[in-house]
Design brief:
Strand order of the largest sheet: 3-8-7-6-5
Strand content: 15-25%
Helix content: 10-25%
Order of helices and strands: EEEEEEEEHHHH
Structural class: alpha+beta
Length: 167
C-alpha cells in the first residue's frame, strides 16, 4: 500500500556502510513499522541477517551492518516479506523529524532515569506492557496495519500448506 505522498525517510548504520530508505511506518520502542514493500537497501553493502529466537519461541531476524554490527531492522517471527521493523535510532536526522511515537510500551523494563512525564502530558500513551492498537493509532495506521496482518496470515497459511504437501 504505497502512497506517493510520503517523503522517503533515510537511515544508516553507525559507520554508514549500509544505507537504506523507507517511506512509511510509525511506532515507538525504537522501532518503526514499515511495509516491507516500502523498504529497500540503497547501498551496495548488504546487512548480515541473523536468526533470533523470540520469547514466543518463533524465529525472528535481525539485520546488522556487516562492518560495525549496528542493528538496522528486524522482523518478529514473520518471514520479513510483509512488515519490517526499522530501528528508529538509525534514521538520518532529517528523517527522525518526520516521525513521532504513538505510544511508549513495555515501560516496566525502562531504565529508572528515563522520564516519560512530558509524553504523558502530551497525551501519548505510556503503558507497562502493551496498549490496544485500535484505541491509540490513527484510522489510517490501523487500516494499513490490518492489511499487513491479513497478508502475513495468508503468507503463514501458504507456508504451512507447502510444508504439509512436502511431508
Amino acid at each position: 500500500m504505497t502512497s506517493e505522498t510520503f517523503t522517503p525517510l533515510k537511515g544508516h548504520c553507525a559507520c554508514e556502510a549500509v544505507k537504506y530508505e523507507r517511506e512509511t511506518g510509525a511506532a515507538f520502542a525504537l522501532n518503526a513499522i514499515v511495509e516491507t514493500s516500502n523498504f529497500r537497501i540503497i547501498s551496495s553493502n548488504q546487512p548480515l541477517r541473523t536468526e533470533i529466537v523470540q520469547p514466543s519461541g518463533e524465529i525472528g531476524m535481525m539485520a546488522r551492518c556487516p562492518i560495525c554490527y549496528t542493528g538496522l531492522f528486524r522482523d518478529y517471527g514473520g518471514d520479513g516479506t510483509i512488515m519490517t521493523y526499522v530501528k528508529a535510532g538509525t534514521l538520518d536526522d532529517e528523517s527522525k523529524k518526520s516521525i513521532q511515537p504513538t505510544g511508549h510500551i513495555f515501560i516496566s523494563t525502562k531504565l529508572d532515569w528515563v522520564d516519560l512525564t512530558s509524553e504523558r502530558e502530551r497525551g501519548i500513551p505510556v503503558v507497562q506492557e502493551h496498549y490496544k492498537r485500535r484505541e491509540v493509532w490513527s484510522d489510517e495506521a490501523n487500516a494499513r496495519y490490518d492489511i499487513l496482518l491479513q497478508k502475513e496470515a495468508a503468507a503463514k497459511k501458504a507456508k504451512a500448506a507447502r510444508k504439509e504437501s512436502e511431508a
